Amino acid sequence: MNVWKITGGHRLCGDVRVQGSKNAVLPIMAASILAGCETEIINCPQLSDVEAAMEILRHLGCRAEREGDIVNIDSHGMTRTDIPRDLMHEMRSSVIFLGAILARTHEAQLTYPGGCELGARPIDMHLEALRALGAQIEEDGGKLECRDSGLVGTRIALPFPSVGATENAMLAACGAAGQTTIVNAAKEPEIVDLQCFLRSLGASVAGAGTSIVTISGFAPRQIVGHRVMSDRIVSATMLCCAACAGGALTLHGVVPDDFETVSAALEEMGCTIERRSMSVKIVCDRPLRAARAITTRPYPGFPTDAQPLLMAACLKAAGTSEFMENIFENRFRHVDGMRRMGADIAVSGRTASVTGVRELAGAEVSATDLRGGAALVAAALGAQGVTQIADSGHILRGYEDLDRLLNSLGADVRFEGEEPLSLENAM
Ligand code: UD1
Known about the structure:
By secondary structure, the protein is α+β, with helices and mostly antiparallel strands. The protein folds into two domains: about 1-20 and about 230-425, UDP-n-acetylglucosamine1-carboxyvinyl-transferase, Chain (Alpha-beta prism); about 20-225, UDP-n-acetylglucosamine1-carboxyvinyl-transferase, Chain (Alpha-beta prism), CATH 3.65.10.10. It is about 30% helix and about 25% strand. The chain has helices at about 20-30, 50-60, 85-90, 95-105, 125-130, 165-175, 190-200, 230-245, 260-270, 305-315, 335-340, 370-380, 400-410, 425; strands spanning about 1-5, 10-15, 40, 65, 70-75, 105-110, 135-140, 145, 155, 180-185, 205, 210-220, 225, 245-250, 270-275, 280-285, 295, 320-325, 345-350, 350-355, 365, 385-390, 410-415. The strands form six sheets. A four-stranded mixed beta sheet has the order 21-22-1-23. The longest helix is centred in the middle third of the chain and has 14 residues, at about 230-245. The chain is elongated and about 65 Å long. About 50% of the residues are buried. Uridine-diphosphate-N-acetylglucosamine binds near residues 164 and 186.
């Protein structure tokens, strides 16, 4: 069990180069098998989820190697079409490989990824999209047997703009004859990054970032390079950490629009935000007031992944901040740890009301999921005394060297347990 020991009360000051996006790189790594070519993925964060994706690629018979922040993949010699249960369970998003394996080989054997800490997380929309393209999928005791005798482009209308189902449909459609149109597609920036990579691979894709995405042909190339977008949720995390601890941070290499809803909420609470073309500066030098009502929605709405983080920033803000969670059924699990630190939070169904308290006090808490864990880190930075966060590997799934980064900005964070993966260790 990893433990984070955080002594609060230190302001954060300095510059941050934000890591590459976890949620963008995972579908890009899956897509790398489509063309049977060599790909160089730059700005690839060193995270346990990325390591899991590399393990899947190696299991499939691809070469996958890291050198610093670059991951090189050669999928030319792909020999297998299955993903074993332990790899599927290591990372729920491994289901994203399904569309890519089918497109490349016309058969795939996976296990159901199962639920996760945020709730049931079904994959019915993924499977329906692949069936619409002509895949035959049999579900048997948690196993998925998939095959097709040639995928054929079609119109796929998603009942909800699911990020993963949109990505899976885009990957499978690259192996389909004719045009595929995905209607009610997710509009997240990571979908745009995937489109960018697919175009480099030789696919004709258009519309990412809008609700209609079309895929109409694939002429594979041999060698492909791509720079992964910066992680908008890590950007949101750093802004919220600054709001909790006070101080001034400048985030570099970011696209301000990607996390504008979070910046705007913090601005309304009393933080000063300066946006430039590739950087955002936050200054927090006075007490904050409550946030306007926050309702999580698909992009460009307020991201569910940032909900626990903004909640951390509201714990000491004067007044009552209301949060409505619309995406995941079980996304208030961080509330228990926040209450242990002295927070005043009332939860009723999908709504949480946070009434600002004068001070938070360090406590012993547990990270129950990735962003909820990061939110406890943020809250601890603004609490008096020491907070001890027990974490069974959640935070490291999404944050590269978080303890070192926060310490370099003035925080006092000690990480005990399995050393976090770091670029230095990798080289
Ligand atoms: C992705 C992100 C995750 C983020 C989420 C929403 C990755 C690796 N993860 O997850 O960080 O929180 O988008 O922005 O990119 N659903 C179904 N059936 C399906 C698929 C989804 O009912 O077949 C439901 C989910 O249970 C959830 C909602 O749709 O309630 C949104 O899920 P989705 O957009 O698919 O999220 P993910 O792609 O899993």
